[in-house]
Write a structure and sequence with these properties.
With about 650 residues, the protein is an all-beta fold. The chain has 3 helices and 41 strands. The protein has one domain: TonB-dependent receptor, beta-barrel domain (Maltoporin, Chain A, Beta Barrel).
């Protein structure tokens, strides 16, 4: 069965800003999302400068998708970037919202952040598995997909890098990377307070304060409290499920140690509780009907005998030390992160004791990256670096049926090393050639114990290692001042891992991406049109297969798959006050070879969670209010084709 999704954001944002004549400024924003019945009101107190128009989708922003600041229009890769202002205007507060307004990405959040970019992603779980498309927050790799899904607040910009990022971002970014960059501390004192009220008693309160602390230091702190009643109701008990209860915070301290040396210290905390995500049945067999099962009358009815729960706690510390010399820049990025995940699920989604699941996961990780780059490129732009990760993970899963209890505990230690470098040479004033290379080595030491009804059934301590050289070749050429074409061949790699429960090893993934595209600004700077075509040769892709009878999932390697598609992003300034935008993606992703035994082959089946067609349309009108500010009206519509969640396309 395929699952379709469309989202309508009629008049999704209304922004009002007023500047007072006292020299200080007051800004108030109200954001309305009629699809979610939400209204957001924010107040901000700033000093000295008047409120200027905020960024819109038409503005060209600076990004760091190649670990060096550059205009998005001059960066020869497939990347979509939204500023924090644009995220506010559209009403994007989490990754679920973002997927409808960027090409080539789908995000599923049923117990973890399953990020699928151009058909590359995985639903594998356990401490010895890793994501195929990765999330970075302020340059820090987020190792656990169970903790990658968080509310986005106080964001400077969001960058989506499509395609393997095997050289610069490296670890397991075979499908791509999602970079979230938070706002930096300011010299001037500023603060904001935001309140969101919505249906199901939704309440979100945010507060930010930023400013200079001394002549050479700046600080910023942001807090968020989010709550909402459950949206599903138990037909038999009246209990509500899938509520929200989140508290999060982030603090940043920037210190100028000298005129060339800066250190940025960051700390973040997120606690997400509540009843979590529920299971729903696709249908009821005659056995359930005869047993008198409570059958839902609408999409939000449910009947459970095992109360669901999802508790996530994650925190981290990081430091970024940057020395900027006349010829070279040296950067050190260090981080330490801890997370705990606890989930309970009524997997059969009935009031009977048929199949329940408990899942636990804990992680402690340390990462260190060093970068060396030239400060003022003169015909040759280069960067080189080293990366190290160590992660200690533990957890397990309980599979509980009537008369049978399977308890699996696991632990794993992952160590990853990498060395990388990339350079871009100006062949002539219009043509540039890029070459990059990364070497990656990873090892995993895994241990598991399986008990059945309290007795030992199996145990083991397997270990394995994987390595790869992943190159990148690219050319980009300026057809005109505002028109650039590019072509690239890039290799991506994702390490193997171990199957939870029996310790079976699965192999590493390998992907070659071939891409070409054009980035252009036309019609006297009133139309921006970016189009890209891509072809993937995907081998040994890690696929999760589900046994409908036992409810057990296993991770195996499919032989080969081909993914190809086209993406387009268009923004037009119809008038000085009126912008329209269109994002469209068509993707064809199929298995070429995936034998199942006994003559069965999934060749020709579509890859899971990969829609053929996605698109979104938006329009925004801005009107001035004399000398006091401006008002922004915005509406959006998004569509995503149906997808299969299983490799057998059932």
């Amino acid at each position: 069965m395929k699952y379709k999704l469309k989202t309508i954001y009629p008049l999704s944002a209304l922004t009002l800003a007023m500047a007072l004549s006292s020299g200080q400024s007051f800004a108030a924003e109200a954001q309305v999302n009629s699809d979610n019945d939400q209204t957001e009101t924010k107040t901000a107190q700033q000093t000295e400068e008047k409120v200027a128009r905020k960024d819109t989708l038409f503005e060209t922003i600076q990004i760091t998708a190649q670990k060096r600041e550059a205009s998005i229009q001059s960066t020869p890769i497939s990347v979509t970037a939204f500023s924090g202002d644009v995220l506010d205007q559209i009403g994007i507060t989490n990754m679920d919202d973002f997927q409808f307004f960027a090409p080539g990405i789908t995000i599923t959040n049923d117990s973890q952040a399953i990020v699928n970019i151009r058909g590359v992603g995985t639903t594998a779980f356990g401490v010895a598995t890793d994501p195929s498309s990765t999330i970075y927050i302020d340059g820090i790799y987020q190792p656990r997909p169970t903790t990658g899904y968080q509310d986005m607040f106080d964001v400077e910009r969001l960058e989506l890098l499509r395609g393997p990022q095997g050289v610069l971002f490296g670890r397991n970014s075979v499908g791509g990377a999602l970079n979230i960059i938070s706002k930096a501390p300011t010299d001037e004192v500023e603060g904001t307070v935001g309140l969101t009220l919505g249906s199901y008693n939704k309440q979100t309160l945010t507060g930010t304060f930023s400013g200079g602390l001394t002549d050479n230091s700046r600080g910023r702190i942001t807090l968020l409290k989010n709550s909402r009643d459950g949206i599903y109701k138990d037909m038999l008990t009246g209990e509500e499920y899938q509520d929200e209860d989140t508290f999060a915070g982030r603090g940043t301290l920037a210190i100028d140690l000298s005129d060339k040396l800066e250190i940025v210290l960051r700390g973040d905390y997120n606690n997400d509780g509540g009843t979590g995500y529920i299971s729903q049945r696709g249908g009821y067999t005659q056995d359930y009907v005869d047993a008198g099962a409570a059958i839902p009358k609408d999409d939000y009815d449910i009947a459970l005998n095992y109360k669901p729960k999802t508790d996530v706690e994650v925190w981290g510390l990081s430091s970024t030390l940057t020395w900027t010399g006349d010829d070279y820049t040296i950067k050190s990025i260090s981080s330490y992160r801890e997370s705990d995940f606890d989930q309970k699920t009524d997997a059969d989604a009935t009031e009977f004791t048929v199949f329940n699941i408990n899942f636990l996961e804990a992680s402690e990780s340390f990462t260190q990256e060093f970068q060396l780059s030239n400060t003022t490129p003169d015909g040759l732009d280069w960067i080189t670096g080293l990366f190290y990760l160590k992660e200690d993970g533990s957890g397990g899963i309980d599979l509980l049926t009537d008369g049978l209890a399977i308890e699996i505990t696991e632990e794993n230690v992952t160590e990853a090393y990498a060395a990388f470098g990339q350079m871009t040479y100006d062949v002539n004033p219009k043509l540039r050639a890029t070459f990059g290379l990364r070497y990656s080595y990873e090892s995993k030491n895994y241990g598991y114990v399986t008990n059945v009804n309290g007795g030992l059934d199996d145990t083991g301590t397997p270990d394995d290692s994987w390595s790869a050289w992943t190159p990148r070749f690219a050319l980009d050429y300026d057809l005109a001042d505002d028109i650039m074409i590019y072509a690239s061949a890039t290799n991506g790699f994702k390490s193997g891992g171990f199957q939870i429960g029996d310790g079976t090893s699965f192999e590493q993934e390998d992907l070659w991406s071939y891409e070409t595209g054009i980035k252009s600004t036309l019609l006297d700077n009133r139309l921006r049109a970016n189009v890209g075509l891509f072809l993937y040769d995907y081998t040994n892709l890690q696929v999760v297969e589900y046994d409908d009878d036992s409810g057990i999932s296993t991770t195996t390697n499919a032989g080969e798959a081909t993914i190809q598609g086209i993406e387009g992003e268009f923004v037009a300034r119809v008038s000085n006050n009126f912008d329209v935008n269109l994002v469209v993606t068509y993707t064809n992703a199929e298995f070429d070879y995936f034998p199942q035994g006994e003559g069965v082959d999934f060749a020709g089946n579509e890859l899971p969670n990969t829609p053929n067609l996605t698109y979104s349309l938006g329009a925004q009108y801005t009107t001035e209010m004399a000398d006091v500010g401006y008002v922004v009206f915005r509406g959006d519509y998004a569509w995503r084709d149906g997808v299969y969640f299983k490799s057998n396309n059932e």
